[in-house]
Design brief:
With 313 residues, the chain is α/β, with parallel strands linked by helices. It is built from eleven helices and eleven strands. The strands form three sheets. Strands 1-11-8-7-6-5-4 form a seven-stranded parallel sheet. The chain has a two-stranded parallel ribbon with strand order 2-3. It has a two-stranded antiparallel ribbon with strand order 9-10. The longest helix is centred in the first third of the chain and has 21 residues, at 88-108.
């Protein structure tokens, strides 16, 4: 990593997701890379923390010890919601209680940066885990499902807020909240006190949504950020026109900021975001890639950290 060329804005923390090492959506991709290697390379690349990967221990005390050994903090946990399908509310509520208890134990262990955000996305009816065309099968919620989703998010968002955390909704390819219109509707019908937005530049760009436009429209709702790049050549590959999410991922649709092969203008994104001013929190690099195809994960982590050193510090 090159030395920072600009002072870090106050209140900004830099992280990276373990999906650069092992894929949470498709666990066999990178499943041979142990948690200890992932955490060590995250620290070596110069990041302050990461989200919780599927290869990580589920013992909060053991995870805290492994992360503290390397000076790392948890940037955010992930929780899928299922408000739009039968009995999904009950499943979501049970999962939320588990996540909140886990986070309380992690924060009690005294990490350098306490976890404050929980990332969520509605996976009711989602197709990104299925071997079907991602474009042709994108779920469209009925008005009733939209009501169920927004009311459900408001409820768990209030519970989360009362426990000292903030809910951040992540628009995601292959789910019912993907397009700019989807995002606008979700923000319009959820309580800004309890439901924030997790802005993922890669999923937005892939869906044809300008991340800068989303920042300008929903600046006050942004609670968390994933800095993910999209390779336009893969997105436009005619051979993948009917491809599944997994096929796109394995073809290399995603990469990191700082890789000249990506199309997202991160300079424009960060200029619009105004880190340290209108936004304070984590900037988390993410790129689901096959760790055994092309360069190793540490290479991409260092590329991303070098880019952030130049523009953020």
């Amino acid at each position: 990593m090159q030395a920072p060329t600009t002072p870090r804005p106050e209140g900004i923390h830099l992280g990276i997701t373990p999906t650069c090492w092992s894929n949470d959506d498709f666990p066999l991709i990178g499943n041979d890379i142990p948690m200890e290697q992932c955490l060590s390379e995250i620290a070596l690349a110069g990041f302050e923390g990461c989200s919780i990967g599927h290869t990580f221990t589920t013992d909060a005390d053991a995870l805290a010890a492994a992360m503290h050994l390397r000076g790392l903090s948890v940037s955010e946990p992930w929780m899928s919601t299922y408000f739009t399908v039968p009995e999904g509310c009950e499943r979501t509520a049970r999962e939320l209680l588990k996540v909140l208890e886990f986070l309380k134990r992690l924060n009690a262990a005294g990490p350098p940066v306490k976890t404050g955000v929980i990332g969520v996305a509605e996976f009711g009816g989602a197709v990104h885990l299925q071997a079907v065309s991602l474009r042709a099968n994108k779920p469209e919620f009925t008005d009733a499902q939209w009501t169920e989703l927004c009311e459900g998010l408001n409820k768990i968002g209030e519970i989360t807020a009362n426990q000292g955390f903030r809910l951040a909704y992540h628009p995601h390819m292959g789910t019912g909240v993907q397009s700019g219109a989807d995002i606008d509707r979700l923000m319009r019908h959820t309580d800004p006190r309890h439901v924030g937005l997790l802005l993922d530049t890669g999923h937005l760009a892939w869906a044809g949504v300008d991340p800068v436009d989303v920042i300008e429209r929903h600046r006050d709702r942004i609670a968390h950020l994933h800095l993910k790049n999209v390779r336009g050549s893969v997105r436009a590959d005619g051979a993948l026109a009917d491809g599944s999410f997994r096929e796109y991922v394995e073809a290399g649709i995603f990469t990191v900021p700082g890789d000249g092969d990506g199309d997202v203008d991160f300079d424009a994104v960060l200029k619009a975001l105004r880190p340290g001013e209108s936004y304070r929190g984590w900037l988390v690099v993410e790129a689901e890639q096959d760790p055994h195809a092309g360069h190793p994960p540490l290479h991409y982590a260092q590329l991303a950290r070098s880019y952030l050193a130049r523009v953020i510090g």
